[in-house]
Every structure is written in structure tokens, then in C-alpha cells.
Design brief:
Blueprint lengths: L42 E3 L2 E3 L3 E3 L9 E2 L5 E2 L6 H11 L5 E8 L11 E2 L3 H16 L4 E6 L30 E2 L15 E2 L2 H22 L3 E6 L4 H6 L14 H4 L1 H14 L5 E6 L13 H14 L3 E5 L18 H11 L4 E5 L5 H9 L5 E4 L1 H5 L3 H8 L8 H4 L6 H12 L1
Parallel strand pairs: 3-6, 3-15, 6-7, 6-8, 8-11, 9-10, 11-12, 12-13, 13-14, 14-15
Antiparallel strand pairs: 1-2, 4-5
Length: about 425
């Protein structure tokens, strides 16, 4: 009799067990017949069903690229075996969804020389190796795509939080762009960016669409997330702090969100209506020193508009666009109230994901049970523990399906040994 262990896994060109169940899915019925907490109930968006509501938040690793034959680093923006191991750890252990770190839609839009890119087919093909492994585990995986705007061309954050790369070592400071020629921090390390022309704006919009198309058609990702947060190019357009344009892309609220709306339309045009599209935004600028700051009221208004434009999930974060932003300190669930306010307004028009120091399984489940948001996205928790979804299941007393190669050590088939012992006594 053939078992799943012996069945070839068509997703990958090497041996990998064909998992009999979706990893991270709650076993039904539960061994004790208890109801399944909503955190571990599945959620469907279009053609994709996530087995639980615990997601890996996109987190830049700044480790992409190649090494030349003479041993020098090359800025190819290609995924490496590091990324395969990094994301494989999450998709082997039952995360409900994994969002791959921000991939640049163009070389000049990369946050650093070591960012992932998805502006050519070779980059997309390397990412496919990660996707195929995830799908071999029946896991769901998407990718965040973005443009750094005036915060592009930076050093990896683990080297310096706010320092650009010199042109002598491959930097492209003269090509940094933004809605307006306003630097991030006066007398800071980021240079004054070049104000985008309308022709350049149209090209970048196209870049987003083509990046999404590669991600779906070449890499095979299950969904796309547009990065519209943290002071990168999209944020720079919708926040009046950084957008002082006098044309149709600046001034009024409607004009400042135009760039984002046109990106959404282009992405949807390139990948169609069947693929889920996520959008991450900064719900507020966290800057009380100016009336130009983006507010929660702005985000609520935007949420209704992007829902009509085809966004399926709104991912709620904050800040990153003002050097005067207030510090959030060590508070947990830092964006909970923003996510709750938006969810209360939009209801079922949008799935709402919340990120930001979500570090307690019971609190996360209660927030979802209460309808404050729909998905918990966790960053540092997964870095510390790739099996966080499994850990949270244990904390909530939920049995979930795990991989064959891991689960046997926790739930050995004792009955098989008992049978052999009894047989030996005969």
C-alpha cells in the first residue's frame, strides 16, 4: 500500500514528503472536542485559503546578491540559499501565510544594494525555488513589492539605520526620486531626492504591474502585497509631509492618493481578478508637529476607496515618513487601535491585518474573536521562533497538523509498538 511518504511531490525536483494535510490547519474535530479558536480557523480570500490567521510579516534581510568569480560581491538583487532556508523554516512549521520581504520593482527603487529584486525574470526564477518548496508543504506564500523613493540606496539597517551608499562603491544617490525634492531629515544622511516627472511616475506605475506579473506567472506566488507604508515612495505621495506637488499628483487628498490608485489598477490589470492583492499602509505619520501629517481619518477614507479598487486585504502599520515622528516605545499591539478603527468602518469590505509587537496568543485570538482585525502578522516573534504558529497553538490548546518529519517526535504512533509487543508475546 502506497503512503504519502512514498508519493513523489510534484512541486519540487527533489525528494520531499507529500504532506497529507495542510500544515498549520487545526485538526477537526479536536481530540478533546473543544471549539477551535478563531485564530486557528481558516480564512479564504478569492482562490486562496489560509489554514490559520497567523502570518509572517515581510521583513527585509538585506542579504540578496551574488559573488563574482574573483570573489567580489555583485548587486544582482537575487535570492540566495539563505532566503530558501529563512522562508523554508516558516513554511515547514505551519504559518498561516508567509509574506516574503519587500522586493524592489526597479534597481533605483531598492532600499539597499542587498535587497531582493523582482524587476527581471532571473530574479523571479530564483524566487520560484522558495515558492515551490512552500507549495510542497501546502503552505501559502506571497511577496511584498515596493519602491524606496527618497529612502532608497541605503545601507542595510543592521549596518546603519539611516546612511546612504556612496557612488564609489555602487551607490545611486543621484538617481534617488520622490514626489517632491524634500529630503527625509534636514541635514541628515539621506540626500535631497529628484522630483519625479509625470513620465517617470508612469514608468514606476508600470514597474509595479510588471513586478506583480513576474511574481505570479514566473515565481508562482499565491498573492501580492503592495508596500505603501514606512515612508517609501507610495507613502511619500499620499502624505502631505513629503508631497508638495502642484499637479494632479499633489495637493488634495484625492490627488495625493492618485499614484497609489494607479498602481493598484496596473497591478490588477497585469495579474487579473483571481489573485489576492494586499496593501500595507502607514495608518498615521505619528507626527504631531505639523498639520500635513497623515491621520487615521485619512486611512479610513483611503480604506473605502482601495476596497472599491480591488484591494482584498489592508495591512495596518504606521510611521516612517517623518523625522519628527513620536517613538512608540515598547508597547505591545501598537497598531491594534488603528486596525480596529479601520475594521469598524469598512466591515466586510476588506480583510484587515494588524502588525506591530503582536506577542501574545490569547490577546491576538481575542482581538480576532472581537472583530478588531482578521489576521495577526508577526515579525520578530517569527525570527525568534520559526514555529511560532505551532507554539501559539500549544498555548491555546489547539492540535494542528504538522509535517510528517516533525510531528512524529511529538505524537509517536505508540499503537504500532504496542501491536508489535503484543505480537511478540504470542
Amino acid at each position: 500500500m502506497s503512503s504519502t511518504y512514498e508519493t513523489p511531490n510534484a512541486q519540487v525536483p527533489y525528494y520531499l514528503p507529500l504532506q497529507p494535510e495542510v500544515l498549520g490547519k487545526a485538526i477537526e474535530p479536536q481530540p478533546d472536542n473543544k471549539p477551535i479558536p478563531k485564530l486557528f480557523q481558516p480564512l479564504s480570500i478569492k482562490n486562496v485559503t489560509f489554514p490559520n490567521r497567523i502570518g509572517v510579516s515581510p521583513m527585509c534581510q538585506y542579504l540578496a546578491g551574488s559573488v563574482s568569480k574573483d570573489g567580489k560581491a555583485e548587486n544582482t538583487f537575487l535570492a540566495t540559499p539563505y532566503h530558501f532556508v529563512h522562508y523554508g523554516g516558516f513554511t515547514t512549521r505551519g504559518a498561516g501565510l508567509t509574506i516574503v520581504e519587500a522586493a524592489a520593482v526597479s534597481a533605483e527603487g531598492a532600499l539597499s544594494q542587498k535587497d531582493l529584486g523582482i524587476f527581471n525574470d532571473e530574479q523571479a526564477k530564483k524566487l520560484k525555488e522558495i515558492v515551490d518548496y512552500a507549495h510542497g508543504n501546502q503552505a501559502k506564500i506571497g511577496i511584498q513589492i515596493g519602491h524606496g523613493g527618497r529612502k532608497a540606496n541605503g545601507q542595510p539597517i543592521f549596518i546603519h539605520l539611516e546612511q546612504t551608499i556612496d557612488k564609489s562603491i555602487g551607490g545611486w544617490g543621484d538617481k534617488i526620486v520622490a514626489p517632491s525634492a524634500i529630503e527625509f531629515r534636514p541635514k541628515g544622511n539621506y540626500p535631497v531626492p529628484n522630483e519625479l516627472s509625470k513620465e517617470e511616475i508612469k514608468r514606476i506605475i508600470k514597474d509595479f504591474g510588471l513586478a506583480a506579473k513576474r511574481a505570479i506567472e514566473i515565481s508562482g506566488f499565491d498573492f501580492i502585497e503592495i508596500h505603501g507604508a514606512h515612508g517609501y515612495l507610495i507613502t511619500e505621495f499620499y502624505s502631505a509631509i513629503s508631497n508638495k506637488r502642484k499637479d494632479e499628483y499633489g495637493g488634495s487628498f484625492e490627488n495625493r492618493i492618485r499614484f497609489l490608485i494607479e498602481i493598484i489598477k496596473e497591478v490588477k490589470f497585469q495579474i487579473g481578478d483571481k489573485i489576492p492583492i494586499f496593501l500595507r499602509i502607514s495608518a498615521v505619520d505619528n507626527d504631531d508637529t505639523t498639520n500635513d501629517a497623515w491621520t487615521i481619518e485619512d486611512s479610513i477614507k483611503l480604506a473605502h476607496i482601495v476596497a472599491q479598487e480591488g484591494i482584498d486585504l489592508l495591512d495596518i502599520s504606521s510611521g516612517g515618513n517623518s523625522h519628527n515622528q513620536s517613538r512608540r516605545g515598547t508597547k505591545s499591539f501598537v497598531h491594534h487601535e488603528y486596525a480596529k478603527a479601520i475594521k469598524k468602518s469598512v466591515g466586510d469590505k476588506l480583510i484587515i491585518a494588524c502588525v506591530g509587537a503582536i506577542n501574545d496568543a490569547n490577546k491576538a485570538n481575542q482581538a480576532i474573536e472581537d472583530g478588531d482585525f482578521d489576521i495577526a502578522l508577526i515579525g520578530k516573534g517569527f525570527l525568534q521562533n520559526p514555529g511560532l504558529a505551532w507554539t501559539w497553538a500549544d498555548q491555546l490548546g489547539v492540535r494542528v497538523h504538522q509535517s510528517l518529519q516533525y510531528d512524529w517526535g511529538f505524537h509517536p504512533k505508540i499503537s504500532q509498538i504496542v501491536e508489535l509487543i503484543e505480537r511478540s508475546k504470542q
